[in-house]
Amino acid sequence: MNTVLLEQLIQLFMIMGAGYVLFKLKYIDVPFSQKLTRILLDVTLPMMILASVMNDDGEKDFAKIGTVFFFSFALYVFMTVLSIVTVKLLHFPAKQQGIYMFMCMFSNTGFMGYPVINALFGSEAMIYAAIVNVFFNIFVFTVGIVMINYDGGGKKENGSVASLIDLKHLLTPGTLCSLAAVLLYFLPVHYPTVLTGFCSTLGGLTSGLAMLVIGSTLAKIPVKSIFNDWHVYLFTVIRQMAFAFILWPVMKLSVSDDLIRAVMFILMIMPVGNTAVLLAGRYEKDEELAAKTVFVTTFVSIITIPLCLEILKVI
Predict the structure, then answer these.
(1) Can you give the pLDDT at residue 123?
(2) What is the spatial distance between Cα 87 and Cα 216, in angstroms, rounded to a whole number?
(3) Which residues of 67-88 are buried (b: 16+ CB within 10 A; e: fewer)?
(4) Bridge-partner residues for 107, per DSSP?
(5) What is the pLDDT averaged over residues 54-77?
(6) Is 212 helix (H, G, I), strand (E, B) or coil?
(7) Distance CA 145, CA 150 (A)
(8) HSE-CB of 27 using CA atoms within 13 angstroms
(9) How far apart, in whole angstroms, are the C-alpha atoms of residue 272 and residue 268?
């Protein structure tokens, strides 16, 4: 077992546990958690992305960046097909099929994925994670929106496909900073220490704050409601284990660079992202199902992530 990975995951989950306890003790409430989420998405996470390239004085590799762009797009296309086929084969309840498709496809690449990638591989890998994040956002607010409104019978609720997709949602600070990071990566500029220090310090808050937010989010879910739906457990096994054993051979055959392959794979096997809960609430879908699944997959991932990486010899 990779002890570095295990130690990092345990540390992150301990912070998440602290967020859970702080919410229960009312040090964190719902409005405060919502404000923290906005700070993370709009400030600290973008700063972490920018800091990763501003501190990089090594040789720039255009070919690798092009490779990550191509395979990130291809990976999300593959995940779209895999998610639809999986949900259809498992015969989940018709009204829940769309949200299950969404949860199959979109993992917690931001709040959990970035801290893990940064801890394991350092700033060198963050430019690759930033590119994956660009395509994550593009697919979430296009394909993902259509998925979450799918009713299981071939129709899309709440209007036409075109009316569901709002391209303004693509212009988030996270997406814009990810694109900016790619541009900054290739600029032959030495950034002032005071600027890189500013971005690094703010970006460094991301891991701790993100896990506090996840913990406080999970604390809102009544524990007894988690154990009343066997579909969630079947989904968790498929999503957190079976998908890993499908994705890794495909990526081994297609992506030759070890670091790029590892970064993309680890981001994909993160638990279901909080985005599922946010969008389920926005489109009046089964928000409780999304929250329960985020809860279960997040806690199970402390075992499944190291286990998959060890069995598959990813790092």
Answers:
(1) 72
(2) 29
(3) bbeebbbebbebbbebbbebbe
(4) 272
(5) 81
(6) helix
(7) 9
(8) 10
(9) 10
Instruction: State the pLDDT confidence band at 238, using cuts at 50, 70 and 90.
Output: very high
293's tokens: 């699944």
Pairwise CA distance, residues 294 & 127, whole Å = 26
Closest CA to 5 of 273, 313, 240: 313
Kindly state the tokens that stand for 20: 């859970």
pLDDT at 309 over 80: yes
- Which DSSP category does 270 fall into? S
- CA dihedral over 164, 150, 210, 129, signed as positive or negative: negative
Model confidence at 153, in pLDDT bands (50, 70, 90)? low
Going 242 to 129 to 97 to 277, the CA torsion angle's sign is: positive
Q: Counting runs of H as helices and runs of E as strands, what totals does the chain give?
A: 18, 0
| Segment 273-289, tens digit of pLDDT | 878 887 887 777 887 88
Is the Cβ–Cβ distance between 288 and 266 less than 8 Å? no
Residue with tokens 């409601």, as numbered in its chain: 225
User: What local confidence, expressed as pLDDT, does residue 111 receive?
Assistant: 74
Kindly list the domain boundaries of the chain, sorted by start residue: 3-312
Answer positive or negative: Cα dihedral of 143, 99, 242, 116: positive
Please tell me the CATH code under which domain 3-312 is placed: 1.20.1530.20
With H, G, I as helix, E, B as strand and everything else as coil, classify residue 313: coil
Helix (H, G, I), strand (E, B) or coil at 61: coil
Q: How far is CA 242 from CA 42, 222, 267, 290, in A?
A: 34, 28, 15, 20
